[in-house]
Structures are given as structure tokens and as C-alpha cells.
Specification:
By secondary structure, the protein is mainly alpha-helical. It has a domain of 253 residues: Ribonucleotide Reductase, subunit A (Orthogonal Bundle). 60% of the residues lie in helices and 2% in strands. The protein contains 16 helices and 2 strands. It has a two-stranded antiparallel ribbon with strand order 1-2. The C terminus is likely disordered.
Length: 378
């Protein structure tokens, strides 16, 4: 006899498999029904927490005229994340690409150029997808001013990320036809199309609960980006492409904050998706990312070990699961010492450590007055 969780898992599986095709991209995969790896016997519904609350009555989502007011701060942790993001502002013009072209033309081989161009093409498309979700879904759904401030700033930063990736491609790729091919990667490159379609399904699905969508886009920014970030940091370790790797520091820092905020929003929900559903969404993203970087666009093209990359993605996924309140699923360790700085575990993250020395100190401390405001978590 199936349980409500099993029924919800079927919906998640349909979302995952109906639009995700295999490595040859000719037809969709057909997966076996998902079998939960562990299930809390006491949580036998689709959700955990205050399971009887309808989504429209969720405090974060319930319409209120207080959504137009910033003070007094009601969700202090969400507000602090907004101020943290605000202090990390940067622009594409601050990236110096003057030395990259020499490395691109004279120090990198064809495989490395192929790999990096595809990674940049994916990033350029992915930031637009993240923004579409923020505009069409999260910004409309969430009624809390503090979260809306963060989403508004995130939209701006995703635009800057997209602009940066576009400038990188324009700098490195001189052939107009090849450049156009990469700019339309969602249609022209099957392995990128697969990742994009998975994310787009979570925007378009009317069956998905808000909490499920939050988890899915935490996976997009926390898992789909993780392997590509690691591959670019690998280039930095080899002393290549200073402009590219510097922008990677800034963008990976931003995406780390976006993922952290998603986890904070998720944990602020009174009614959350069952841990088994969370696990399934994350494990689906892991499978897609592992296939992307070990088969469709293998990291061995740039001299990285594909097996270690798979383990790294599992390590990142475990950290995300824990941040979402789940148990670890893979129990993986971090195989890349050079990636410690951007793992979700990072106690000293880019913002505090200021690896790239980008932080608007005046902005970061300007909210001291607001901290004196009466805060109340609904």
C-alpha cells in the first residue's frame, strides 16, 4: 500500500524524468520508481512540521500589508543575509581580462578551450533561468519584505553574472558562428539543454509546492554550479586565466550566499517537504551533474580526475542536505583541498575571508541601526 510520501515521490520522479534525456539526448530516460532510502515512521505525510497549514497561510507566503514595510525587521536572519549580499556588490567592469587571451591562445590546449567554453555557455544560460524563477515564482510568492529585498538584489547580481560570462565568451571566442552557437547553448548543446530543462520544469510545474521549488533551486545553484566552479578553480591552481578565475571567486561567493539564503528560507517554513522528497530532488541533481562532468563534458579534458569530481559533487550535496535539515546521503569527503574555501562547510567563506578583497565595508556596517530595531520572527 503506497503512502502519501510515495505518491509525492511519484510526482517528483515525473518532474525529473519527463524532461531529462540520456547522454545521447535522443530520447528521455525511463527510471525505475524511486524507493525511499530512509523514512521517518512518524512523518507519514507529504510534509513535515505544521502539515495542516495550507500553503497560502504559510507565514512567509501569507499576504499582508506589512510586506510594504522594512521596519521593524521581522525576520532578522533574512535581513542580515540581504545586508551581507548588498556588501558584496561588484560589477563586470572590475574584471581584468587583459592577460587571459594570451593564456587562452598559447597556454591552453584544444581540450581545455573546448571544456571552458562549454562551462561558460552553461553558466550564461543558467543565470537567466535562475532569474526567471526569481521573477515569476519567488518574488511573487514570498510576502516578507526582508526576503523580497534579498531576491531583488539577487536578480541584479545574476544579471551581472550573466553579463560577465557573456564578456568572457566574447573575449575568448573570436569566431562569430561559434560564439552564437555557445550563446544559444540551451538549444544547441545537449548536455546543457538537459540541465536547463530540469531547472525549467521546476519553474513551470504547477504541482510543485513552494518548499520543493526552494530545494530544487538550491540544488541548481548549490550543485549544478559546483562542479563547474571546481573546474575553473583547478585552472587557477595551474596559474591559468587570472581574469576568469577571479570572476569565478566572486561568482562562486555570490552563489554560495544564494544557496545559504535558500536554506534559510526553507528552514523558516512552517510546513516543509518530507525529508525523503528533499533527498530525491538533491540526488536527481547530483546524478545530472555527475553525468555532465564525467560523460557529456568530462573533466579529464582539463586533467581532472572524474572519479574525484563525482565524489566532490556528492560532498557538496551532503552539505546541502544537512543545511536543509536532512541527514547526509552519500557520506562523501572533499577530495579537492583547493575547494575547501567554497564548500558549504566553509566557516571562513569568501565574504569574511575576502579572498578577492571585495566587500563594501560601509554598507556592511550600515545596518547597525536596524539591528537595534525590535525583531520578531513570525
Amino acid at each position: 500500500m503506497s503512502t502519501p510520501v510515495d505518491s509525492r515521490i511519484d510526482i517528483i520522479a515525473e518532474l525529473s524524468t519527463s524532461s531529462v534525456s540520456g547522454p545521447n539526448q535522443e530520447e528521455d530516460k525511463t527510471e525505475e520508481s524511486y524507493k525511499p532510502t530512509w523514512l521517518d515512521a512518524e512523518a507519514n505525510e507529504h510534509f513535515v512540521g505544521y502539515v495542516e497549514i495550507p500553503e497560502c497561510e504559510e507565514p512567509l507566503l501569507k499576504k499582508s500589508e506589512s510586506r510594504f514595510l522594512l521596519f521593524p525587521v521581522q525576520y532578522s536572519e533574512l535581513w542580515e543575509m540581504y545586508k551581507k549580499a548588498e556588501a558584496s556588490f561588484w560589477t563586470a567592469e572590475e574584471i581584468d581580462l587583459s592577460k587571459d587571451l594570451r593564456d587562452w591562445e598559447h597556454r591552453m590546449n584544444d581540450n581545455e578551450r573546448f571544456f571552458i567554453s562549454r562551462v561558460l555557455a552553461f553558466f550564461a544560460a543558467a543565470d537567466g533561468i535562475v532569474n526567471e524563477n526569481l521573477v515569476l515564482r519567488f518574488s511573487k510568492k514570498v510576502q516578507v519584505a526582508e526576503a523580497r529585498c534579498f531576491y531583488g538584489f539577487q536578480i541584479m547580481m545574476e544579471n551581472i553574472h550573466s553579463e560577465t560570462y557573456t564578456l568572457l565568451l566574447q573575449t575568448y571566442i573570436k569566431d562569430p558562428l561559434q560564439r552564437d552557437f555557445l550563446f544559444h547553448a540551451m538549444e544547441s548543446i545537449p548536455c546543457i539543454k538537459r540541465k536547463a530543462k530540469w531547472a525549467l520544469r521546476w519553474i513551470e510545474s504547477e504541482e510543485s509546492a513552494f518548499g520543493e521549488r526552494v530545494v530544487a533551486f538550491a540544488a541548481v545553484e548549490g550543485i549544478f554550479f559546483s562542479g563547474s566552479f571546481a573546474s575553473i578553480f583547478w585552472m587557477r591552481k595551474r596559474g591559468l586565466m587570472p581574469g576568469l578565475t577571479f570572476s569565478n571567486e566572486l561568482i562562486s561567493r555570490d552563489e554560495g550566499m544564494h544557496t545559504e539564503f535558500a536554506c534559510l528560507v526553507f528552514k523558516s517554513l512552517k510546513r516543509r517537504p518530507h525529508p525523503t522528497i528533499v533527498e530525491r530532488i538533491i540526488s536527481d541533481a547530483v546524478s545530472i551533474e555527475q553525468e555532465f562532468l564525467t560523460d557529456a563534458l568530462p573533466v579529464n579534458l582539463i586533467g581532472m580526475n572524474a572519479e574525484l569530481m563525482c565524489r566532490y559533487i556528492e560532498f557538496v550535496a551532503d552539505r546541502l542536505l544537512v543545511a536543509l535539515g536532512n541527514r547526509k546521503f552519500y557520506n562523501a569527503t572533499n577530495p579537492f583541498d583547493f575547494m575547501e574555501m567554497i564548500s558549504l562547510e566553509g566557516k571562513t567563506n569568501f565574504f569574511e575571508k575576502r579572498v578577492s578583497e571585495y566587500g563594501k565595508a560601509a554598507v556592511r556596517h550600515s545596518d547597525e541601526a536596524s539591528r537595534g530595531q525590535t525583531s520578531r520572527i513570525l
